[in-house]
Every structure is written in C-alpha cells, then in structure tokens.
Amino acid sequence: MDCSPVPSSPCCWSRAARAMPRRPAAWKPRRPAAAPASRSRPGQGSIAAPALRQGGPDASLAAAQQARPEMQFAYFNLMSMNHQGETPAEVLANTVRQVRLAEELGFDATWFAEHHFSNASICASPLLMAMHCAAVTSRILLGPAVVVLPLHHPLRVAQEVAMLDQISGGRVLLGFGPGHQPHEFRSLQVPLESRYARLLEGWDIVEQALTTGRVHHLGEHYRIEDTPVAARTLSGRMPPMYVATATPAVLARGVRAGATPMISQGYRTGTQALPMRQAMLDAWRGVGGAEPLPLGIQRYLFVTEDAAEARQAAEGLLALARNTVALRAALPARDGVHLRAVPFQGEPTVEWLLEHGLIGAPGKIAEQLAGDMRLLRPTHYSLYMGFTGLAGAAVERSLTRFGREVLPLLRRAAEAEALAA
C-alpha cells in the first residue's frame, strides 16, 4: 500500500461495507457503549453515548447506527527499518508487541503492509504477519493493507486468507491493491502495465474460492480449470474488503461489493484534505456508489510531551515523505536496501510539522482529530506511529497514551456525530 503523506500522491482504498461475517460466539465486535468483549479495555470506561448513560439505547441511536457504518480505529504497521542500526528481527518483535498492546487498548483492528526490496518495509507477506499476530491476540481484527495481488497467484492468496480466517476465528479484514512501486514489479518479473487487469481477475478468483469452494476461471492472465478449494472462510462469505486504489474500474468493483473508499490524509490539515474528500465523493458517485459516503482515512501521529521526541517524530515524518518520493522511481536510489532521501519541491519543514502535524500532547492530538472527524466525516481511521526512528519503547508509550487519553475522546466524538447525523 502507498502510505504516502505526500500531497501529490494520495492513497485510496475501499472496504466492503456489507454486514460483518458471522463470528464464533466467543468473538464480539465492538458496539457503542457495549461492555468489553473478553478483556478489560483501558481508557474505554467512560465512552458511552449520552443516551446510553441515561438508561439504555433509544431509537435515535439505533437509527444513527443504521444510517452510517460504525466508526473503527485501526493500528497500522508499515514495519520500516528507520535507521542503519535497526534489524528486521527488532522491527518484527516491536510490531508484535505493539499489536498486542493495541488490542489491550481497545483498537478495533490492525493492518500490515506489503512492500519489497527496501528498508521502507521489511514485511514481504502481510498475511504471514497477520497469521502470527492472530496466535497472540483474541479480539482485534487483522488484515493486510494490502496484498499486492498482481504480484501473487490468487489461488495461493485465497488459501492463505482462508487459513488466517480459520485460525483467527474469523477476525479477518482483507485489503487488495494493484501496487505502485515499479522496482517491485521489475524484480518479480510482472509487467507493471498489467496490474489493474490482474487485480480484477485475481479478486474474482479469490472470491470464487472463498465463497463457493471451487474455482473455474479462464481469463487473460489466469486460466484455472475447475479446481476445488479445501478451506473457506468460517462465514462462507468474503471478509470485509479494502482496496488500495481509486482507479474507476476497481472502485466500481468495490461499489458492486458494497465498498468504502479510503484516502491518505498524510500531513495535511483537515481543511487541506477537504478537496481529497470531494474528489473521492465525485468518483464514488461516478461509479454508482451509495450515499452517505463511507470514508476511511489514514493518518500519522505521535503522542509525546518531550520536545526532543517530538522533533525526531517530525523529522521521521519528513523522511517517510521523502522515501515515498524515492520509491516512485523506476530504480530508486539505495545503499544496499536503505533508500537515499529525495527532497521534493514543496515539502514541509520540520517546524511546520511540529505546529500542524499530529505530533505532541494528547490534548492537541485529540482536538485536531476530533475537528477533522467533524469536517471530513470518516468512518474508519488507520493510524500509524512507527515512522519516528525512535526505539520501540517510545512508540509503545505513544500508543499507550493515545489509547488511554485520546481514543476515549474520539469514541465519544464519533458517537456524537452518529447521533447528529
């Protein structure tokens, strides 16, 4: 997935908004003001909507929930090696600890990226990473953001998704994307120009496998004679889907599935992101998407009141933007696997990021995100904190403070917006 914070390259996903698959009895999705599912969830003891504090759900809350998808908060894992001293083993271990902590803090979901051949991400298999984390969690939803489907045989992907769904008890979100880094396609010997056609064909094949248990597909890029598939999802349906592109043909495919687009706000302010929302709404309408527009947003944040940590976080965010620019090249400049920074025209200063970015004390973060929620009206946030280059313990402190001091406020804000809708 292109998690670019660079204004010229927004990342767009789509998520299936159809009803969640049936889950085993022990698994309970979060509902506003519901009791915790299977363990205490720090920081969520006071997030009930006003109507519920006064004696239980009323018709207005039920109507609001029907009219608008429930707000979700997800923790995103890019899994970068942010400096020469970091090792893949350290990055992976930090990721596992942070996913377990995100579950304890009440996040709804966690995402794992897929990238190849650079320090921008060491996760070549998000499904493999999700499988490992499924074994050490019990409630949080897990998914790839995304599987770069053109780089894989879809029958293999279908079987691995089914394994993840079975072993996790149905806690799967599934993201597909066409890919966007030319060097990955060159090294894996897949024609870049075929990526959208491969994505659409691959999606059809995965859906056949997971929903019918058989695949018969005679297409341009894949020719599969009648083939049985042993494992399917527990529900017999596709997991909730996310798609990392706003390309019309793929967005239309998502709309037919009942999908939600997702944009990457990057380091933009809410006001700066409004044109992105409008552009997505126009594209959504253009392919027949139903309204109100369900919208996911990816953001980058770091909670700290330490001035030195805040500055390093801002420098890390700028480095992330520069790396994203570098990866757009056919042959990105690298020293080994480490990308060389590529300053770009119009890039923000560290001082601007410190003032306007989501870096700082919990109160600042909560106020800015709540304001963005009112302005942009998202239904899903994917939140990334691992861009700083700071040690894992510092990232976990940020995650903990967000979960305990910011997330409850955002839950209340989301519930208030749902009631007002």
TrEMBL record:
SUPFAM superfamilies: Bacterial luciferase-like. Residues 22-42 have a biased composition (Low complexity). Keywords: Monooxygenase, Oxidoreductase. It holds the Pfam family Bac_luciferase. Residues 71-370 form the Luciferase-like domain. GO terms for molecular function: monooxygenase activity; oxidoreductase activity, acting on paired donors, with incorporation or reduction of molecular oxygen. Residues 22-62 are annotated as: Disordered. One of its GO terms (cellular component) is cytosol. The keyword Oxidoreductase applies. It comes from the Bacteria. PANTHER family: BLR5498 PROTEIN, LUCIFERASE-LIKE MONOOXYGENASE. This is LLM class flavin-dependent oxidoreductase. It comes from Dankookia rubra.
